Amino acid sequence: MELLKSWSNTFIEAGCDEVGRGCLCGPVVAAAVILGDDFAPNLINDSKKLKFKQREELDQYIRENAIDFAIAELPPAFIDEHNILNASIHAMHLALDQLTTRPELILVDGNRFKPYPFIPHQCIVKGDSKVLSIAAASILAKNYRDKLMIELHEAFPEYGWNKNMGYATKHHQEALMKYGATIHHRKSFKLVY
């Protein structure tokens, strides 16, 4: 199914998505993307449905062809202090803050968002598999975060972050039981099951 190029067909839309909400460690990362009418959908889809190589190619295409895009991250300490939902929404706000083109409508993947100053928003459940700009945001956010987790893996190879990206896999759980939490783990999350 081809994704919608526009939700409103009227306004300048910024699609927003975040990645890393369910991880035990690392930042939460959000992206905001504004696409033009001439943006070709290519193979863009929800980032979770794409292979690594596809996401890499699409990441470059989005960066080169979007009207505007921005990426923001918030560290585990912020997540621990404000909770993951608030951190996710705040990261999306920070990404929107960085856009040089002002959107007239914000499209958010999911069902929760806090109003952004002076711009209306629309929450869309499974928006990353329905709307092109949200799918593009999901790709940028996921690629950015995955690369970051692969870099963090170099300092903490025991946890397998280059493969699990910080999610609670069996390997990650076993490493937590053996070595304990790192500075990159979210202390407010249940780390050992």
Automatic annotation (TrEMBL):
EC number(s) on file: 3.1.26.4
Reactions accelerated catalytically: Endonucleolytic cleavage to 5'-phosphomonoester
Statement: the UniProt record of this protein carries the keyword DNA damage: no
Segments forming domain RNase H type-2: 11-193
Classification via Pfam families: RNase_HII (PF01351)
Cofactor: Mn(2+); Mg(2+)
GO CC aspect terms: cytoplasm; ribonuclease H2 complex
InterPro entries for this protein: RNase_HII, RNase_HII/HIII, RNase_HII/HIII_dom, RNaseH-like_sf, RNaseH_sf
Known role: Endonuclease that specifically degrades the RNA of RNA-DNA hybrids.
Name of this protein: Ribonuclease HII
Species whose genome carries this gene: Bergeyella porcorum
Gene name in the database record: rnhB
